[in-house]
Each structure stands twice: as C-alpha cells, then as structure tokens.
C-alpha cells in the first residue's frame, strides 16, 4: 500500500509526521517537565490529551523479555478484538516477529529516543489500512525502568477516524525512524 508522504514539519529532530495526532503527541511530550532527556511517567497525565487517549498504548519495559501493556486505548483495543491491558504485547505478535518487535520497544527506551513507524494493518474485513505510530520514552517514577507511550493513527482520507473494520489480522512495518530527543539516535 502506498503511503501519502505529504507531511508537515517535525516538532522533534528531523522526523516528519503525517497524522495530526502524531504531531499533537510529540508537541505534548515536549511540553512536559523533565530532568534530562526523558520525563518521568508521573509528569504525563493521559487525560491531558483526551483526543489522543483512545489511540494510546502505554507499555512498561521493566520485566526482561516482556512488554507489559499498562493501557491500551479503546480504538486501538478494537483493532485486536479485545482489550489486552495487563498482558504482554509480544503475545499479540506472531512468533517469528517477536524478537524484532521486542527490539522495537527496547532500542528507543534504552538509547533514549522516540520512534515513528509507518505500517499497514490488515483486517478481517479484508482491507489494508496504512497507519502511523509515534512512541516516546518515559522514566518510571521509581527509577527502575522505562515506559514507552505510543499514539497510533490511521492514514488516508479519514485519518482521524478508526472505523469498525473488524479485527486486525496482521501488521507490517514499512518504515521505522528514530526521533532524536537530545541524545542522538541509535
């Protein structure tokens, strides 16, 4: 599926964002107080960005080899056909892609940097939909690890709407771009 590359200027680094929600998320993240490159998780109240909350995914990376889902917005959960909050995100990934998916979370959390992914969801209704997801890191308040907060957006003529397309059957990554938040990129 071709992805429309008519993008606006980035709020961070040299990344460009297609979806309005992606730009809103990056701008909000940059507005948070921080000591160093990464804000602590308590500096972010998801209710401060209510329009983004249904598209949000908060993952905790404290447990080795596990990407614990702390929150999955309602629109994102509808893509899976259930709400996996509390579970391991990697359980949602086909076995042959789990290690790559795990690294997709660990690299930006450990470097630290943000991450922008362009990809395609395929749905049970048969339709492929292009998506943009932007994730940014947070330090856990107890200092014992990192969390990543992602906002996903459907792209195309109705980029701000997620229609009921049935359950997502697969996700294919077309492009992964790291976002410099002051510590460089890996």
Give the structural class.
Answer: alpha+beta
Mind summarizing the main beta sheet?
Answer: 6 strands, antiparallel
Order of helices and strands: HEEHHEEEE
pLDDT averaged over residues: 83
Number of helical segments?
3
Structural shape: globular
Tell me about this structure.
17% of the residues lie in helices and 28% in strands. The chain has three helices and six strands; from the N terminus they run H-E-E-H-H-E-E-E-E. A hairpin with a 4-residue loop joins strand 3 (114-123) and strand 4. It is globular, with a radius of gyration of 15 Å.
Question: Which features does this protein show?
Answer:
186 residues; alpha+beta; 3 helices; 17% helix
Structural topology:
Elements: H1 20-31, E1 56-60, E2 68-72, H2 74-80, H3 98-110, E3 114-123, E4 128-139, E5 146-154, E6 168-179
Antiparallel strand pairs: 1-2, 1-5, 3-4, 3-6, 4-5
Summed up, what is this model?
This protein is of the alpha+beta class and 186 residues long. 17% of the residues lie in helices and 28% in strands.
């Amino acid at each position: 599926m071709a992805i429309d590359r008519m993008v606006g200027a980035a709020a961070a680094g040299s990344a460009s964002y297609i979806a309005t929600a992606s730009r809103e998320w990056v701008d909000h993240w940059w507005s948070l107080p921080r000591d160093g490159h990464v804000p602590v998780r308590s500096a972010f109240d998801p209710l401060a960005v209510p329009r983004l909350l249904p598209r949000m995914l908060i993952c905790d990376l404290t447990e080795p080899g596990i990407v614990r889902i702390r929150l999955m917005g309602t629109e994102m959960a509808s893509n899976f056909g259930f709400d996996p909050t509390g579970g391991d995100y990697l359980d949602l990934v086909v076995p042959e892609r789990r290690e790559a998916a795990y690294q997709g979370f660990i690299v930006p959390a450990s470097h630290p940097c943000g991450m922008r992914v362009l990809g395609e969801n395929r749905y049970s209704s048969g339709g492929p939909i292009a998506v943009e997801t932007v994730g940014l890191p947070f330090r856990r308040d107890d200092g014992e690890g990192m969390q990543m907060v992602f906002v996903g957006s459907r792209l195309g003529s109705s980029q701000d709407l997620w229609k009921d397309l049935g359950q997502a059957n697969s996700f294919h990554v077309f492009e992964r771009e790291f976002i410099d938040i002051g510590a460089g990129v890996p």
